[in-house]
Design goal:
The complex is a heterodimer of chains A (160) and B (150). Chain A is an alpha/beta fold and 160 residues long. Helices cover 19% and strands 29% of the residues of chain A. In chain A, strand 4 and strand 5 form a beta hairpin. The mean pLDDT of chain A is 91. By secondary structure, chain B is α/β, with parallel strands linked by helices. Helices cover 38% and strands 12% of the residues of chain B. In chain B, helix 3 links the parallel strand 2 and strand 3. In chain B, helix 1 packs antiparallel against helix 5 and helix 2 packs across helix 5. The radius of gyration of chain B is 16 Å and the shape is globular. Classes of the chains: A alpha/beta (160), B alpha/beta (150). The interface between A and B is medium-sized, with 16 and 14 residues.
Chain lengths: 160, 150
């Protein structure tokens, strides 16, 4: 394995807060301010060459008592090198926002809208940040752990 | 014309005609659609019951088959389709999601389409087997036969 997470740590010794490798799944936790810089590097550097953003999602650590509460997870893949790397960014509830990566990977567009819709995390600079799965009338963000599991917001019909 | 028997016989005749000319509108949103297709095709052949001709315009159809999970987002569309159908009309809830919401007891899913539109026949199952669908269809035919024809 190419040990990409270690190389990233060497490149950004201050910005990569922690790294780990669980059975070949390499992960680096990046400081939120350095996300765009690191992403730019991961995409353009010939050794990393991450031309695909496979997935972008978030985790709510409310019940696990995480501080900060949220983790946004990016999965990158390189077609040419056939390797992968997972990047995590931790953000708090009060300022739940990150810069968008739509400029680097257009695939980020809908992923970021989904994370906004489900978790209420804003992506600054996104060209069209509106709900993608739920309807506009929906209030709240259903995958947040403090969204009541039995809360219903039907457009028509009784609340059931 | 001076006795009640004539109209009841007319009702029975119209009912007989209607139950064997079910023009369905398949409102298919999820995996139950596969089972609907299996029922419609030649192995099970709903055409034996006069229901072999789906219409893809609500204005030309008699029975609304709601096949698959209905989310709150699509619920107004389903209601509009139902409103566009001309009388007489019937609704079949196909599969457990349409009957009760099934195991989708969550923020996104309508907990039974009878909270939005009236339902005549419920076909449970996840998904229902074609025999189950045919049983539901026969029950609908009995209902059409017996009801007062308008």
């Amino acid at each position: 394995m190419p040990d990409l997470h270690k190389k990233l740590k060497e490149k950004f010794p201050d910005k990569a807060i922690e790294i780990h490798n669980h059975r070949g799944d390499e992960t680096a936790v990046i400081e939120r301010g350095a996300l765009v810089e690191a992403a730019q590097f991961l995409k353009t550097d010939p050794e990393f060459d991450f031309n695909v953003l496979m997935d972008l999602t978030a985790v709510d650590g409310l019940e696990l008592k995480w501080t900060p509460r949220f983790e946004v997870v990016y999965h990158f893949y390189s077609f040419a090198k056939n390797h992968r790397l997972r990047i995590k960014v931790r953000i708090c509830e009060k300022d739940a926002a990150l810069p968008t990566l739509t400029g680097l990977w257009p695939a980020a567009d809908w992923f970021e809208r989904e994370v906004w819709d489900m978790f209420g995390i804003r992506f600054e600079g996104h060209p069209n940040l509106k709900r993608i799965l739920m309807y506009e009338e929906f209030s709240g963000h259903p995958l947040r752990k403090d969204y009541p599991y039995n809360k219903r917001q039907p457009l028509i019909g009784p609340k059931n | 014309m001076n006795t009640g028997s004539f109209t009841s016989k007319l009702d029975a005749m119209i009912g007989w005609a209607r139950k064997f000319s079910i023009f369905q509108y398949p409102f298919v949103t999820a995996c139950c659609g596969m089972e609907y297709m299996a029922t419609a095709c030649s192995h099970y052949d709903v055409d034996r019951f006069g229901a072999g001709l789906p219409r893809f315009s609500p204005r030309q159809s008699d029975v609304l088959f709601v096949v698959g999970t209905i989310s709150h987002k699509i619920a107004p569309v389903l209601k509009q389709i139902y409103d566009q159908m001309a009388d007489p009309k019937w609704v079949v809830a196909f599969g457990v999601c349409t009957c009760t919401g099934g195991f989708y007891d969550n923020y996104a899913t309508v907990q039974g389409i009878d909270t939005i539109i009236p339902v005549d026949v419920y076909i449970p199952g996840c998904p229902p087997r074609p025999e189950n669908v045919l049983d539901g269809l026969i029950k609908l035919q009995e209902k059409i036969q017996k009801q007062k024809q308008e």
